[in-house]
Amino acid sequence: MSTAQPAGFNELLHFPVRLSLVSLLTPAAHAEFSYLREATGLSDSALSKQLATLQEAGYVEVRRTGRRATARLTEDGRRALAEHAQALRALLGEALDASQEAVSRTERSG
Question: Where is each HTH arsR-type domain found (predicted)?
Answer without folding.
Answer: 1-103
